[in-house]
């Protein structure tokens, strides 16, 4: 893995860790009632999706098991259609999908 891709993956892992810490011990109702937490978590989603766009095409093809396109697409919705973004979807993504993504990226980084 070249230096740039390695740095991007490490930064993605860092953003996942931030989102996980923001969500620690927080259920859906508490998340929906906390505007600052929602905005902070959405920013991590945006950051992760933006980072995906900085990976080389060959790198993304080599690790095609990672849903790069879906990650970048969710970023676009969070960034450009925030008013229609369902916070329940954000919660589910961070709670359900981020752990698997963290595992995949961790395996790449090792």
Task: Walk me through the structure.
This protein has helices spanning 3-23, 28-32, 35-52, 57-62, 68-80, 87-109. The protein is mainly alpha-helical and 110 residues long. It has one domain (3-109). The protein is globular, with a radius of gyration of 14 Å. The model has no long low-confidence stretch (mean pLDDT 94).
Summarize this structure as a short list of keywords or feature phrases.
110 residues; mainly alpha; DUF86 domain-containing protein; RNA nuclease activity; hydrolase; HepT-like; 6 helices
SSE topology string: HHHHHH
Question: Number of DSSP strands?
Answer: 0
- Structural class, by secondary structure, is mainly alpha
Main sheet overview: none
Average per-residue pLDDT, rounded, comes to 94
The gyration radius over C-alpha positions equals 14 Å
The overall number of domains is: 1
Helix content: over 70%
Shape: globular
Low-pLDDT runs: none
Distance between the termini: 10 Å
What's the helix count?
6
Strand content: under 5%
Summarize the helices and strands and which ones pair or pack.
Layout (H helix, E strand, L loop, with lengths): L2 H21 L4 H5 L2 H18 L4 H6 L5 H13 L6 H23 L1
Put the structure in a nutshell:
It comes from Gordonibacter urolithinfaciens. The protein has helices at 3-23, 28-32, 35-52, 57-62, 68-80, 87-109. It is an all-alpha fold and 110 residues long.
């Amino acid at each position: 893995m070249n230096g740039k891709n390695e740095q991007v993956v490490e930064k993605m892992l860092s953003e996942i860790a931030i989102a996980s810490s923001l969500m620690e011990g927080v259920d859906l109702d508490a998340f929906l009632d906390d505007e600052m937490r929602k905005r902070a978590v959405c920013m991590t989603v945006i950051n992760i999706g933006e980072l995906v766009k900085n990976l080389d095409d060959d790198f993304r093809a080599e690790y095609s098991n990672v849903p790069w396109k879906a990650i970048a697409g969710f970023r676009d919705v969070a960034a450009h259609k925030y008013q229609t973004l369902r916070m329940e979807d954000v919660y589910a993504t961070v709670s359900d999908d981020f752990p698997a993504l963290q595992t995949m990226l961790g395996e790449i980084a090792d």
